[in-house]
Amino acid sequence: MVEYIPVLMFAVVCLMLMAGYPVAFSLAGTALIFAMVGTATDHFDMSFLHALPNRLYGTIDNTTLIAVPLFVLMGVMLEKSRLAEDLLDSMALLFGKFKGGLG
Fold first, then answer.
1. Is 81 found in the same domain as 41?
2. Torsions phi, psi of 25, nearest 5?
3. For residue 23, is it within any domain?
4. Residue 92 falls within a domain, yes or no?
5. pLDDT tens for residues 39-78?
6. Which has the higher per-residue pLDDT, 79 or 62?
7. Containing domain of residue 72, as a range?
8. Exposed / middle / buried, residue 13 (Cβ in 10 Å: 0-12, 13-18, 19+)
9. Exposure string (b/e) for 23-49, b if CB count within 10 Å is 16 or more?
10. How far, in Å, CA of 38 to CA of 31, rounded?
C-alpha cells in the first residue's frame, strides 16, 4: 500500500490545482495531509516536521538569495527609464563594426 502513496499524492495535487487552489497551497497542503496520515499509520516520523523551521530559516538566511530582489529592481528601473535601451544602442555603435559585435 505504501508504494501507491506518491501516485495518490500526485493525484491529490492535480485535483486541487484543477479545483482552483493556488500552487503553493496545493503542494503544501498535500504534503502536510500526507505527513499526518503517514504519522498516524507509523510510516512517517514526526521529527522530520520539527526540522522544518530550521530549513525555512536557512533558506531565507542565504546571502546569495538576498541579492535577487535587488537585481529585479535594478532591471525594472533600467527598463522604465529606457536606460537599458540607450546602453544597448551605444554599445552597438561602439562595437558594431567588430566581428561578434552588437551590430
1. no
2. -70, -35
3. yes
4. yes
5. 888 888 888 778 888 888 888 888 888 888 899 999 999 9
6. 79
7. 62-103
8. middle
9. eeebeeebeeebbeebeeeeebeeeee
10. 10
